[in-house]
TrEMBL record, chains A, B:
It comes from Hordeum vulgare subsp. vulgare (Domesticated barley). Keywords: ATP-binding, Nucleotide-binding, Nucleotidyltransferase, Transferase. SUPFAM superfamilies: Nucleotidylyl transferase (SSF52374), PUA domain-like (SSF88697). The lineage of its organism: Eukaryota, Viridiplantae, Streptophyta, Embryophyta, Tracheophyta. Its EC number is 2.7.7.4. This is sulfate adenylyltransferase. CDD domains: ATPS.
């Protein structure tokens, strides 16, 4: 991004289009450089962007370099500058004090060579895929965790509602986030294997589901980030977006409270400039129904029958080898998680430091 | 403001209009209440708003009460949460943890009874006044300091440029800010007296100038606040807005640097949603020309001839009784400042604590 785009992101969460309308853009996509890089670039108009092995990936043309005011970027993006924001610690704090923007000429698609590149479909590839399948509605589900039967219930119920609304062929875009996540989140390769099992086990229908990786880093920036999550999926052809309580939220890093008001994500999303065409599907709360012995939509009238199983609780089950209640997750998917945590413990026995991964 | 308006302010600096367009709104206009007030209000649909002497001023109808997350409000408005922001210390930190919004029914115009109410024209009164004077262009000048001849040069030159552009009767709205300012800024009554002298002395032409008080508190919120400064003047009938370096800016409260990039105010203002009709007039820098012995537009080619006299420097002159260079300010206006600082010193001799005012 150039500075005028960066400023519009920070102040307006949207970019003015030549047509006069607005495109939603709540997170700046910027490249930081340090003083040494800035000096090396000097007055050069164009800068090559290389991969980790030095391979030329893209050229940034007619560059401009402008100050990277980290404090302001963090405050306007997260609504706090408290220490301990994961993406700030990971990506912003260590970054250079300058940002470089320009016209990006991509020479070749980015490859990760991690065995998962076939899951990394571009927005155009996704739109083509939806066309090929004859989708007349596409509903997107953002996730960064293993799929349990509560998620599946929600997705299958959404499909049912879309059919009731008159759509003939609603397609689900199961779009797990593939970039940076918190250290205690389940790593991407394990999640992708778990998602495969969920489709193999028939919990989600492979005929009406497309699984693809959304290669964005997780910011945990709540109402600001959920706009990006929705906008990127619209861009890839989705027209329905499922949003729940406290999307992209987290606990406050230094205070005992949620960082964001859990309702603000949905409210801000529903009012955001440039997202007028988005259809927001409110997320019903699913929990384990101890009477029916399955994940079901929570019924306040018999709240005592329901058990909420948090991500932390789920990870504890998998780590300790304890089985979650029957019907919480399909057996194939659960085994992937148990095997992953077992492998960590084995590694941990020989290399304790790895146990914190 | 209700919560949906408050959130739009914080995230988008603009409010979506029923027509589909956007109205610029970068600062939330909110009323904080504390736990005790919230309890007293209970489930009452309507709340009376009373003045300091208990007189009924307005009714807030169909109220809603929502959390006042001060940290988030401050971070998203100022781009920092560093301690020492004047308006935060003055108005936000001591305020309650709830905000109350609703439909405002104003029963009577607010009076300050400070001898300056005749200067407090509503937007409608200002528009009527411009009509009465037959203005075909209105240019607004935001200020919170005494008017020196550099400001006057700028305003008179703007009028000249507007005449050159073909306007027949450009009118200046001299619109000093009347709400909270920093402790070391010159108080409003003194500034209003100084502005009167500037008009009496003919430095500004009373025939083509309207002086009115802008009753907003100063936030010192840079690029976020300058939008409000401009939007409020458009609302009052102005179509040209003069903007300079680092509008509404200040030094960083804890670091040795400007809080905002001095160019960002103008850039953000020029891109802000809902301000498309605003004509921004860039502020030329005026300084004291030691050769011509008057305030003149700075010429970089002979920079050694120019003397920059900051607000701090000006206040030091007035406090110490030293005269500024000839032609810096009209004698009548300067005398107002000298008398004010003399009066402080007299008070200070009997009551030292007052000397910090």
């Amino acid at each position: 991004m150039r500075e005028h785009e960066y400023l519009q992101c920070l102040h307006f969460n949207s970019l003015r289009l030549p047509s006069g309308g607005f495109a939603n853009m709540s997170l700046p996509i910027v490249l930081a450089v340090d003083d040494a890089d800035k000096d090396r670039i000097g007055a050069a108009p164009d800068v090559a962007l290389a991969g980790p092995d030095g391979e030329l990936l893209a050229v940034l043309r007619s560059v401009e370099i402008y100050p990277h005011n980290k404090e302001e970027r963090i405050a306007r993006t997260w609504g706090t500058t408290a220490p301990g924001l994961p993406y700030v610690d990971e990506a912003i704090a260590p970054a250079g004090n300058w940002l470089i923007g320009g016209d990006l000429e991509v020479l070749q698609p980015i490859k990760y060579n991690d065995g998962l590149d076939h899951y990394r479909l571009s927005p155009q590839q996704l739109r083509d895929e939806f066309d090929k399948r004859g989708a007349d509605a596409v509903f997107a589900f953002q996730l960064r965790n293993p799929v349990h039967n509560g998620h599946a219930l929600l997705m299958n119920d959404t499909r049912r509602r879309l059919l009731e609304m008159g759509f003939k062929n609603p397609i689900l875009l199961l779009h797990p986030l593939g970039g940076f996540t918190k250290a205690d989140d389940v790593p991407l390769p394990v999640r992708m294997e778990q998602h495969s099992k969920v489709l193999e086990d028939g919990v989600l229908d492979p005929e009406t589901t497309i699984v693809s990786i959304f290669p964005s880093p997780m910011h945990y920036a709540g109402p600001t980030e959920v706009q990006w999550h929705a906008k990127a999926r619209i861009n890839a052809g989705a027209n329905f977006y499922i949003v729940g309580r406290d999307p992209a939220g987290m606990g406050h890093p230094t205070e005992k409270r949620d960082l964001y008001n859990p309702d603000h994500g949905k409210k801000v999303l529903s009012m955001a400039p440039g997202l007028e065409k988005l259809n927001i599907l409110p997320f019903k709360v699913a929990a384990y129904d101890t009477v029916a012995k399955k994940m079901a939509f929570f019924e306040p009238s018999r709240s005592q029958d329901f058990l909420f199983i948090s991500g932390t609780k789920m990870r504890t089950f998998a780590k300790t080898g304890e089985n979650p209640p029957d019907g919480f997750m399909c057996p194939g998917g659960w085994k992937v998680l148990v095997d992953y945590y077992n492998s960590l413990q084995t590694e941990g026995a020989t290399a304790p430091a790895a146990a914190t991964v």
